[in-house]
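>> received
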Amino acid sequence: MAQDVVGTGQAEAGTQQSSRQTGQARLTALDVCRGLTILVVLFIHVSGHFLPVLHPVKSHTPPTWAWYALAVPNQDGQWAVPCFLMLSAFVNALSLARGGDVERYAKRRVQTALVPYLLWSAVYIAVNVLVKHQHTPGLRQTLTLLQNGTAYFHLYFFVLVLEMYVLLPLFVPLFRKRPPFWAVALGATALQAGVYGLNRYIFLHRFQTTILWDILPVALGLWLFGQSARWPILFRRGVWGAGAVTLAALLVYTPLAVAAMLHQPVNTALYQFGQWGYTAGMSFLILALAGALGRGRLTALLGYLGAESLAIYVMHPLAILALDKLGLNKALGAGLGMVVYYAACLALPLGAAWVWKRGKAAGRA
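>> returned
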């Protein structure tokens, strides 16, 4: 009996240690995935800023090879925001499942998402008025900007996340039952197809700026939450299937996306479902890659960038605007300009975050 008790205690301790190690590895993978993803977000925004330098679409002239060389990876990087949504769905579902207190969950989401969104919207409205010399919005226009996430081009992400936070408590109990992947994939695809049909034929473009346009990455994040204890197995078994689906969807999506950038007519159903399939599959593959990276300087760097990804996301447009005001977008050209702008988009937010943390630490001392 004594041996049984000792053996059971050792087994429980081993299980707890294994669980802690698995949880730590999962947190590291999440931060590394965020780090990879924020780097791609910066590339999308910086490359999109310089694409008109290489070829103004309104010129109605054939684009150069240099434009295509930048436009293709710009469009193929569009998995980044869906990936952030997938990660956010996973993390917040896990928070709900552990805490079980919807009121506490709601208060925490207000503190971490709604308040920053309102503050940064106020910052960028002031930037538009004081720096870009736009007219001061009235109350109704301000409310519209906040509702749509259009106080500045990148703030729409906060609206998507806030909408997702409202819906998550309804779906977490379902995904705690760990439904099989095929059921989640079929259900999410069918629901997304229904939203596409409503958007296209009945409500006329009402859903493209809402979380209902990103059902697949959210569903994937919730499924990963239900399967969180099996992540290493899922990644080993799922990477080849996900890779095949992602590649097939990419071959459909990329030429249509580039054509749309050139204002050419495209089949919207093929374009949209190609994009959905590609971005969801790519999000899974990037998370699998993040989990496969061993410990090292690269992992530590990506983890650091992931931990600071929100600061980088909200502040990097200020770096772009500041460099534009200095006239560097025209003076540097596309090649060198992208390097300088990209570096500034990292340096400004990271420097500001470092100063903020040092100030807080000094205040506590």
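>> Confidence is low (pLDDT under 50) at residues 1-18.
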